[in-house]
Write a structure and sequence with these properties.
By secondary structure, the protein is an alpha/beta fold. It is built from 13 helices and 12 strands. Helix 1 links the parallel strand 3 and strand 4. The two termini are about 30 Å apart. Bound molecules: glutamine.
Length: about 425
């Protein structure tokens, strides 16, 4: 492999055990998923030498299905970012849009599929990190319902929001990979048997006759006009195949980005406290006390975006500000959930452009974190509400890929897979 796009942090083959549904299939694994004996860096200098002693459940499941892991895919540091540019191992270049970012944080996973370096890939999605790079790289990505897929062995960023999800060239292949990784796991108490009996690959039949799809008008308002035009063409494709398209408004979404970032940073500040230089982290020479050593390891091991989030998250959870920020964000989250539940009583599926913009040029976004956070406006509401969503290629703006996002009710993966496969046909 030449890896001209900087897709892999570690190129290492792990051969699956049996002949299963993924025999002869290659797969890239995001580098925040533990692989026994193969280093798992999370895109961070903090874990540059970390070699886990066990496999994440999803890794075991793809190996049991016969897949061959071809490498650990580059990612934003600790999955914090939307362009893959916060990685300590350098950015990934978008194979579908040269000179541009692949999206993030699962940028290496999406790029591996887009470049044909792997047949399939696994990513994780806390606020869009499977759907965003899927959209930017012109591939399919699924963010499952919270609890459908085990998070055991995934390095946690924000536990209440994240799920592992598949990336693939087609809806059917993404659905097949979801069949393999879905289902309850004794090692992860948040998993649920809600999807254990489903067959996602069979749902990719393109039958949308009689399906009602609600366009979330609030998520169109902030999108670029060219992106909206491509989005509307894809709705037309669904309409001609028998779907009914209506409009819905979810007022709470105005607060979703703010709520998401307060919650995600708060959870991150707590999760990342374990990187203390004792169990994990670089060896740093200090002659001071433990506090000095702790600070020195974290100063050296974490990049600027991770530090920013730990600081802001710690602030939002601190005694004087907990009610003002963290609790308020939880209230907004409850409102977002309620809005989605109500909307999904009158329509089967909700739709928006996956990303409001086309992939930015490499190096263009990092200076303005706020701009970067606002790019997540269409994806983070789904994580706040713990719902399933898929991004499917919808077309392009002058060759730059645009994704259509379809959102379903809890454990409604089959419905969004069905609708997404109609867009493909
Ligand atoms: N871009 C979002 C963030 O930085 C989402 C990241 C993710 O889903 N891991 O938090």
């Amino acid at each position: 492999m030449s890896d001209e796009y900087n897709i892999f942090v570690t190129e290492s083959t792990i051969q699956g055990e049996n002949d299963g549904p993924l025999a002869d299939v290659t797969i890239a694994i995001k580098d925040n998923m533990s692989t026994a004996g193969v280093r798992t860096t999370c895109g961070s200098a903090m874990l540059a030498e970390y070699v886990p002693p066990y496999n994440a459940t999803v890794v075991d499941r793809v190996l049991e299905a016969g897949a061959t892991i071809v490498g650990k895919a580059n990612m934003d540091e600790f999955a914090m970012g939307g362009t893959n540019e916060t990685s300590a191992f350098g950015p990934v270049e978008n194979p579908a849009a040269p000179g541009r970012v692949p999206g993030g944080s699962s940028g290496g996973s999406a790029a591996a599929v887009a470049a044909g370096e792997a047949d399939l890939a696994l990513g994780s999605d806390t606020g869009g990190s499977v759907r965003n790079p899927a959209a930017f790289c012109g591939v399919v990505g699924i963010k499952p319902t919270y609890g459908l897929v085990s998070r055991y062995g995934i390095v946690a960023y924000a536990n209440s929001l994240e799920q592992v999800g598949p990336l693939a060239p087609t809806v059917e292949e993404a659905a097949l990979l979801l069949d393999i990784i879905a289902g309850s796991d004794a090692h992860d108490a948040t998993t649920n048997d809600g999807g254990d009996d489903s067959s996602y690959a069979e749902a990719a039949d393109g039958d949308v006759e009689g399906l009602t799809i609600g366009v979330i008008t609030d998520l169109i308002a902030g999108a670029d006009d060219e992106v909206t035009a491509v989005f509307e063409d894809s709705l037309e494709t669904l309409r001609t195949q028998g779907a009914t398209i209506t409009e819905v408004s979810l007022e709470s979404l105005e607060h979703a980005v703010q709520a998401y970032y307060v919650i995600a940073m708060s959870e991150a500040s707590s999760n990342l406290a374990r990187f203390d230089g004792v169990r994990y982290g670089p060896d740093v020479e200090t002659d001071g006390n433990w506090n000095d050593a702790f600070a020195a390891v974290r100063e050296e091991g974490f990049g600027p975006e991770v530090k920013r989030r730990i600081l802001l998250g710690t602030y939002a959870l601190s005694a004087g500000y907990h009610d003002k920020y963290y609790k308020k964000a939880q209230d907004a989250r409850a409102w977002v959930k309620q809005d989605f539940d109500e909307a999904l009583e009158s329509v089967d599926v909700l739709a928006s452009p996956t990303m409001p913009v086309v992939p930015p040029k490499l190096g263009e976004s990092l200076d303005d974190p706020l701009q970067l956070y606002l790019m997540d406006a269409n994806t983070v509401p789904v994580n706040l509400a713990n719902l399933p969503a898929i991004s499917v290629p919808a077309g392009d703006v002058d060759g730059l890929p645009v994704g259509l996002q379809l959102i379903g009710p809890k454990f409604g993966e089959e419905t969004i897979i069905r609708a997404a496969s109609a867009v493909e046909q």
